[in-house]
Amino acid sequence: MEPDFLRKIGFPEDEIGTAKFWRGIGCEDCRQFGYQGRKGIYELLIVNEGHPPVHLEPRARHDDCPKGH
What are the residues whose beta carbons fall under 8 Å from the beta carbon of 25, sequence distance 6 or more? Predict the structure, then answer.
């Protein structure tokens, strides 16, 4: 992992130089992704009356992007 990315996501500064990361190798069962048997960590935001209102606007379509992204 890149140190700048780790800082951006709030990784502890004193662990950046010593942290070890592994990437799954993959197999036929997991279609070479390496995630077979791993557990996901998720976050859930429950929205209720205590949250300020949010106005959602539709995103621009791919065709509308001047750079074609």
Answer: 34
Helical ranges in the chain per DSSP H: 3-8
User: Residues near 1 by Cβ (< 8 Å), separated by ≥ 6?
Assistant: 19, 21
Distance CA 35, CA 19 (A): 20
What's at 44, amino acid-wise? L
Distances (CA, A) of 51 to 45, 47, 54: 11, 6, 9
In whole angstroms, give the CA distance from residue 59 to residue 63. Answer: 11
The pTM score is 0.38
pLDDT digits (tens, 9 = 90+) for 19-40: 988 777 778 877 777 766 667 7
What is residue 13's predicted lDDT score, i.e. its pLDDT? 93
